[in-house]
Amino acid sequence: MINSTQNEQTIGITGASGALGKELIKLFRQKGYKVIGFTHSKNNYEKNLESPNKWIKWECGKEFLLKKHLEKIDILILNHGIYDLSRENSNYEKSIEINALSKFKFLNLFEDIALTNDSIMKKEIWINTSEAEILPALNPSYEISKSLIGKLVSFKKNLLDKDTKKKLIIKKIILGPFKSELNPIGIMSPKFVSKKIYDLANSKRYLIIISPNPLTYLLFPLKEFFNFLYCQIIYKYKS
Predict the structure, then answer these.
(1) Which of 43, 89, 94, 199 has the most Cβ atoms closer than 10 angstroms to its Cβ?
(2) Helices and strands counted in the chain (H then E)
(3) Contact present, 209 and 216 (Cβ < 8 Å)
(4) How many CB atoms lie under 10 A from the CB of residue 115?
(5) Is residue 1 in a domain?
(6) Cα separation of 18 and 219, whole Å?
(7) CA 18/CA 181 separation, integer angstroms
(8) Which parts of 37-116 fold into alpha helices (H)?
(9) Bridge partners of 36?
(10) Distance between CA 161 and CA 168 in Å, rounded?
(11) 178 falls within a domain
(12) pTM higher than 0.90 for the full model?
């Protein structure tokens, strides 16, 4: 949770070179946080008041190499992803790897780091899954990858043991369409979305929903509730 000691907190943001990533970086820098930006981009990294305090270049499949950087982070925002409209099999594999498996690797790595954290302040990880987790996005590979990461995050959150719950907070971000290079016809602006994420994350809520679609606000809490019940059954069965 964002708190009054923000100047002592470090925020990590993946997808830092994208439209939403840039707005999140700008907002957190304005609020006084130290920001580390993770990016795949090969461009020269600007350094100014609206850029991260530090840029980290990384690539999918090598998330484990980022451990020393992740150890310095208090709140990690997983925002990276792709939206490829091609119908080739390789696109399905790439979408699943980047949109789902890579984020899950980050989540597991950050969980391990949180368990060894001696600070009284819990580590937090916010995962952007998208409303395409259960609603159509006119892109099968994107929908499949978002559905996968959505389920992985739900199961991970509901099956955390007591020790991990004392050390780590997981939040799921459900976003509707916003304008970006990947989606130029998005309804919401990245600036609006970033501000809503900041405002809504400063609560105890697990779900952060930002969408112009009223169905999203109905379907996702229901989905998460049934996931919770299912995980309770799993706990009882195991015991």
Answers:
(1) 94
(2) 8, 7
(3) yes
(4) 14
(5) no
(6) 28
(7) 8
(8) 67-70, 89-95, 102-115
(9) 12, 54
(10) 11
(11) yes
(12) yes
In angstroms, the CA 115 to CA 27 distance is: 29
**Looking at this protein, which amino acid is placed at residue 112?**
D
Check residue 118 and give its pLDDT: 87
Query: Which one-letter amino acid corresponds to residue 78?
Result: L
**Using N-to-C axis directions, what is the helix angle for 102-115 and 140-158, rounded to 10°?**
20
Q: Which two tokens stand for residue 204?
A: 């105890």
Residue 80 lies in a domain: yes
**68: in domain:** yes
CA distances from 25 to 48, 165, 209 (A): 11, 27, 20
The CATH number of the domain holding residue 66 is: 3.40.50.720
- Please give the structure tokens belonging to residue 191: 């600036």
Q: Kindly list the catalytic residues.
A: 142
pLDDT number for residue 124? 97
Number of domains composing the chain: 1
3: tokens are 């708190």
Those residues of the chain that have pLDDT short of 50 are 4
Token pair listed for 62:
């090598």
The residue whose two tokens read 């090969």 is 42
Sign of the CA dihedral running 224, 228, 234, 237: negative
75 lies in which domain range? 6-238
Predicted confidence at residue 238, as pLDDT, reads 67
Structure confidence at residue 1 (pLDDT): 59
